[in-house]
Structure formats: structure tokens, C-alpha cells
Design a protein that fits this description.
Helices cover about 25% and strands about 30% of the residues. The protein is α+β, with helices and mostly antiparallel strands. Bound molecules: biotin.
Length: about 260
Amino acid sequence: MDRDKLHRTLNDVRVPDYRYYQEIGSTNDAAINWISDNAPEYALVLADAQTDGRGRNGRRWVTTKGASIALSIILYPNADEQLQLGLFSLASGLAVSRAIESQVKSKVETKWPNDVLIDRHKTAGVLAEAVWQDTRLKGLVIGIGVNLLKEAVPPAEELLFPATCLAVHSHHAPDAITLIAAIISNLKRCREIMRHKEFHKQYTQKMAFLGEGIVLRETDTQSVSGILKGIDAEGRLLMQTDNDPLQAFPIGDISLRPQ
Ligand code: BTN
């Protein structure tokens, strides 16, 4: 990564401080530790490679040097935002999809709650982790992993959902630094509106599988299927099942698949 360009660009988008590693266990762990050391809001941890990257639902997340982005953003939700903490997950997913959209020519969508798909293949994921001291929220870490080049995409047999990378859908080589800056600017914008109707509208417009049949897998043995109807004001997924009225599913360890 071009360190001078990184420094200038992060300055332009008003990142107050950042820590850049060539290799680290997990940028989320470094960000969590930095919160205890008074990291400023929108401080960033970036790494070229992670040896212990993690994804949602306890899965592993591989970051390939030179072919991926791994970053974690530190936030301090205010009292109102803390009432709907789950919305940060959705806002981050929308922010990353908007940033990716500016670099590819194919259709970019958000798979609830926060996976980013290009042409229905996963290209980025978000892991939001809250840091608590007893019942007090100390901070929130938004961890983002993006596949830029083919080398970042794990082999098909290791995947639960088909995956891709930006390079396959772009006329140009993906620009990691510009993408990071776009993620930050978009996250600020999405955060501002995330508790308002406008966010609901924008998120729903970008939602993959809307109006289509989906399966929500709650555990390895338990799943529910129905038609995806959108999200409610809390960011919960709304699904129409055969016999029941509309059901709302909170953001948790639920994974969504097309039927
Ligand atoms: C998912 O789709 O399961 C979420 C993947 C999140 C991966 C990112 S990479 C940067 C940050 N550090 C981690 O250990 N995980 C997140």
C-alpha cells in the first residue's frame, strides 16, 4: 500500500488517527484494545494480512496480502443510537456497498444484514462487535473485509455462499485506498440517517432477494423459509411465511440463503 497516499487520503476524510499493520491477528482485536486506550472516534486499524481474522457466526475470515482489504473502524454510539445498536450493522453494509458500487460496473446489493454482493456473489462482509464494561457500552468496532483480487476469494468448496472480488467486475484495477476513503465517507452519511425513514428506503432499495423466496438458517438444524419482504424500523428482517403473518427476525446468528 502506498503509505503517503494512504496518509493523505485518510486525512482528507478526517480520520483522526490510524494504525497500519503489514500483518496482524485480527484488526477487530487491535481496535477493541485501542478502545481501552482511548482511541478517538473514527480511528482506523488497517492490515494487509490477518492470521486470525474472524467473520460472523464464529467463522474464519481469510485476508490475503495484496488482494484484500481488512479494516476496523472505531465508533462511540450516543445514547439515542445505543437504543438501536443493530442499525450500525445495516448502515455499515449499505456504506460498503455504496463504496464498492463506485468501482464496479455490475449490480451491487446488500444481503441482510450486511454482506455485500456483486452479481449475487459475496465480495465483502462486516463484523460489528460491541465492547462492554458491565452494562456500559465502551465502544463499537465495525470490522470490514473486502475481496479486491481473485487471490482473495477462497476456493468454492470452502464457501457457504458463492464469492467474487471487485477485479472481476471492473475495467480497472481496484483502488484500495480510494475504496477505504469511500467506505468511511459513506458510513458517516449512513450513520446520520440510519434512524430515519430515508435510510429504510435506501437500504430496502439495495436489498438482495427482495420479494424472492429465502431460507433463514437459525441453527444448523433449524431453518425458516418464506418470501423476503424488507426490514422494519429496528432493522429486523421481515419475512412472509406460508401460514403466519409477517415475521420479524432480529440481527443475530441468522444466515440468509436464496431458496
Ligand atoms: C463476515 O462476512 O462474516 C464478516 C467478515 C468480517 C471480516 C473483517 S476483516 C477486518 C475485521 N477483522 C476481523 O477479524 N474481521 C473483520
